[in-house]
């Protein structure tokens, strides 16, 4: 089986593509230390490696490789390596194995030949559906109808899914919709907000604990993983999961078992749960900055859906207003009110819109009350790009700060790319940024174009 050289920016380039709003993973073994270094071998259901072409998919002509050396078998979302009684052995990350699972970035040694197990992000091209709603989601914009189409494709599977989107953009509604569209719809839907639990209790909330596991543990507690058995676990704000807990979660997801806090003996707890994770941050950038484990990122992002902000799909506002009001409301509003809805920046996204509709639907037919005050956060039409960034003083401090930072980053990068005529190397130098981090930021704000030669 012949492989093709991998461009140096295989993963980054795919992540930088605009279509990576919808992405899946492909898995490859990449040769490292032979004259054919860089060749990539995609992993399917079964991949056999050996010295001869007979019975093998990958042929490595090297004196330390056996005639039939090993086989890699796909088991769900994992890949199992089995040594076939080779002379010089099979090693994963320096440890000799007879049978073991591969993890993202693992070094597989076939005799003295090294291959890297590399997940690679593949952008998905999705044709939008004709429908303007699916489950708890509403929208007629192309990005939303693409999301509907992708959910319909992946909901019937058990694949792990990563949802990316700003605060209030509908990640929870998307997770509920996926659950309701799945074969697990009759099972529990358990939400675990990683940002809402204090750091010293998060392990207990997630995995549970035994009586006496710590001071105050007066009874056994069943954690979210156990409670979501046969259903779906929605890990919201996964970027806030402490680094020291991330390996434990990864191990539980891979082994499909865990131990409660304080459980020192007895069988581990088995669980059968579909996991959906969500983040308001670009998790790839977080991994590059060392704030999130890369192996856990790849484990969670078998599929990635990026939900658009409300300001990027304002054509959906009339439909959303009627859906939130429980009946026709948009056409009852005045032109001034329409202008206010369409001109607002919606830093709180769909959540903020829901609050505005809740206030408005009670006063829409009372002229003396249905004034500008119904949209308390309204700050006038959006400022033209390049002008002073607006600050939403009516929002919670954290939301207002995050929105201001996003506005600054978008404006800075737009000017940077224009100034350097899309020369990414020069832009990175001028900004004093690592080139990979710059690509991640450009992707985050949809500013990626073909790099100038």
What structural class do you assign from the helix and strand content? alpha+beta
What ranges have pLDDT less than 50 throughout 5 or more consecutive residues?
Answer: 1-19, 377-387
Amount of beta strand = 15-25%
Number of strands: 21
Number of helices: 14
Please state the overall shape, judged from the principal axes of the Cα atoms.
Answer: globular
Annotate the secondary structure layout.
Elements: E1 4-5, H1 10-16, E2 22-31, E3 39-42, E4 46-50, E5 58-59, E6 70-75, E7 78-83, E8 90-92, E9 95-97, E10 99-101, E11 107-110, E12 113-123, E13 133-134, E14 137-138, H2 142-154, E15 161-164, H3 171-180, E16 189-193, H4 202-207, H5 224-227, E17 232-236, H6 246-255, E18 257-258, E19 269-270, E20 274-279, H7 283-288, H8 294-300, E21 303-306, H9 317-325, H10 335-343, H11 349-360, H12 397-419, H13 424-431, H14 435-444
Parallel strand pairs: 4-5, 15-20, 15-21, 16-17, 17-20
Antiparallel strand pairs: 1-3, 2-3, 2-12, 2-21, 4-6, 6-7, 7-10, 8-9, 8-11, 11-12, 13-14, 18-19
Main attributes?
5-stranded mixed beta sheet; about 450 residues; alpha+beta; globular; single chain; 12-stranded mixed beta sheet; disordered N terminus
């Amino acid at each position: 089986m012949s492989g093709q050289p991998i461009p140096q920016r295989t993963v980054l380039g795919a992540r930088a593509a605009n279509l990576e709003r919808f992405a899946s993973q492909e898995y490859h073994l990449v040769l490292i230390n032979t004259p054919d270094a860089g060749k990539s071998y995609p992993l399917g259901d079964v991949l056999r490696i050996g010295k001869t072409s007979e019975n093998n998919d990958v042929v490595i002509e090297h004196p330390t490789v056996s005639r039939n050396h090993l086989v890699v078998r796909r088991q769900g979302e994992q890949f199992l390596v089995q040594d076939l009684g080779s002379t010089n052995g099979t090693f994963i990350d320096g440890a000799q194995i007879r049978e073991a699972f591969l993890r993202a970035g693992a070094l597989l040694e076939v005799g003295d030949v090294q291959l890297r197990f590399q997940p690679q992000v593949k952008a998905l091209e999705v044709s939008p559906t004709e429908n303007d709603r699916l489950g708890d989601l509403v929208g007629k914009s192309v990005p939303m109808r693409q999301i509907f189409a992708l959910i319909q494709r992946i909901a019937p599977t058990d694949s792990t899914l990563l949802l990316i989107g700003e605060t209030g953009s509908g990640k929870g509604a998307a997770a509920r919709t996926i659950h309701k569209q799945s074969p697990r719809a009759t099972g529990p839907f358990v939400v675990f907000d990683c940002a809402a639990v204090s750091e010293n209790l998060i392990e207990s909330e997630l995995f549970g604990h035994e009586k006496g596991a710590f001071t105050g543990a007066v009874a056994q507690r069943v954690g979210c993983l156990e409670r979501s058995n046969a259903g779906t676990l929605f890990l919201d704000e996964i970027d806030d999961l402490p680094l020291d807990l991330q390996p434990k979660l990864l191990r539980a997801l891979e082994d499909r078992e865990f131990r409660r806090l304080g459980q020192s003996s007895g069988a581990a707890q088995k669980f059968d749960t579909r996991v959906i994770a969500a983040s308001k941050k670009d998790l790839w950038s977080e991994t590059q900055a060392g704030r999130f484990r890369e192996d856990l990122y790849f484990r969670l992002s078998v599929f990635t859906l990026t939900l658009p902000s409300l300001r990027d799909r304002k054509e959906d506002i009339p439909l959303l207003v009627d859906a939130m009001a429980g009946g026709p409301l948009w056409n009852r509003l005045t032109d001034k009110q329409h202008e206010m809805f369409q001109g607002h920046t919606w830093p709180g996204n769909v959540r903020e819109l829901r609050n505005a509709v809740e206030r408005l639907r009670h006063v829409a037919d009372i002229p003396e009350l249905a004034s500008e005050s119904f949209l308390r956060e309204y700050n006038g039409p959006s400022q033209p790009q390049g002008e002073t960034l607006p600050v939403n003083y009516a929002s919670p401090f954290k939301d207002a700060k995050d929105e201001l930072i996003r506005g600054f980053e978008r404006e800075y990068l737009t000017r940077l790319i224009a100034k350097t005529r899309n020369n990414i190397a020069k832009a990175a130098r001028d900004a004093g940024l690592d080139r990979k981090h710059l690509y991640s930021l450009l992707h985050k704000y949809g500013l990626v174009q073909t790099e100038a030669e």
